[in-house]
Glutamate dehydrogenase (Gemmatimonas aurantiaca), 393 residues
Amino acid sequence: MAIDLLRLPTDSIVRPDKDRFLNEENPFEAMMSRFDRAAELLDLEPGIYKILRNPEKQLTVSVPVMMDNGDVEVFTGYRVLYNTSRGPAKGGIRFDMNVTQEEVKALAAWMTWKCAVVNLPFGGAKGGVICDPLMDTYSMHVGRTENAVVTGKPVEMGGSLGRREATGRGCMLVTKEALEHLGMPMKGATVAVQGFGNVGSVAAKLLAEQGCRIVGISDRFGAFHNKNGIDVDAAIAHVKQHRSLEGFTGGDAIDADDILTLEVDVLVPAALENVITTKNAPKIRAKVICEGANGPTTAAADPILDEKGIFVIPDILANAGGVTVSYFEWVQDRMGYFWSEAVVNERLGDIMTRSFQDVLQLSKQHRVNMRTAAYMVSISRVATVHRLRGIYA
Ligand SMILES: NC(=O)C1=CN([C@@H]2O[C@H](COP(=O)(O)OP(=O)(O)OC[C@H]3O[C@@H](n4cnc5c(N)ncnc54)[C@H](O)[C@@H]3O)[C@@H](O)[C@H]2O)C=CC1
Ligand SMILES: O=C(O)CCC(=O)C(=O)O
């Protein structure tokens, strides 16, 4: 028989010490400490608090793959369904040799909060496995073409126009909102971008189109500074030709770490987790940080950025443009009717702007930073559905 967690006395809850970071770089702990802060401010009831601190389901799988040479290799993969109360668990699969279960758990939780902060009818999940994308294999299993099951597909196969640019576009849109809120003009605002792949290069291009001056860019192979403004199209063309920024001549080469500490209006970390830590946070000189990557700032670095008065647009909001257009892709596939790129971008704009304003309003109301406010918006939306559907739904 199920115990009604809501009826337990509050003092039976052991809340972890929110100021204690066992491992600054453990992404799941980072997620949890932010979750705890928001849950406390929301005065979340004990039952829902406990439910939301744990993934619904975790699976470890062995995936057999027939290699090109005919040999069969078996790869380990993880799938974490963090929460499905708001809808099917959305979240891609990370293909990487270094995936860990803790990382997949954190990414699945972030997908839950990300989908909720932009109010998509999805829960959150993530997977990690080492092989090529699976849509053909999945379609083979179900005996028909299942376009709606995989998002980020080529447009010719049921993908959405605008998906490739969506995450970078979302970064540009929330940066625009943030600068307007802070009374800083977009035109002439200086920007540094770490990571020049899908998210970073598109964010740089779209911010430049809005009048910003991109003074620093970097990727795994090089970092460049140009106080007069980098020609972003030339940098994109360079990467297209050489597959990296190495050898780019449109700026002075600088140390890779220095991209994060340039004196700029806006810093866009769009490469990796855990790049802003207690070590370098005191040296960061940006006024606004737009987190294009998932988890670029450690939880222990948050208070340092707060003390410096840096306005951080948190990852679960800043990079939610990608999952939003993936949602649009799912909707279009289910209808079998596809929107023009202008319609996709307009609807993305509506969602990103409204979500930014929802978070900003709560941040003012509770006098908390944007990250805590974003978690509060998400957690309260997920918690509401648990209450409406019954606590165990
Ligand atoms: N692509 C998407 O739609 C979304 C991506 N994200 C997150 O954004 C981040 C970037 O994703 P993508 O742009 O799609 O990946 P990508 O693989 O296209 O680009 C990654 C970029 O980061 C650079 N990079 C890697 N290590 C670096 C280092 N040590 N220093 C500087 N640059 C480094 C790479 O050289 C590359 O330019 C990831 O954290 C990803 O999880 C989040 C939401 C959606
Ligand atoms: O739903 C998608 O397209 C993936 C989005 C994603 O991986 C993320 O937001 O971290």
Confidence is low (pLDDT under 50) at residues 1-21, 138-145. The longest strand covers residues 72-83. The two ends are 15 Å apart (CA to CA). Residues 341-366 form the longest helix (26 residues).
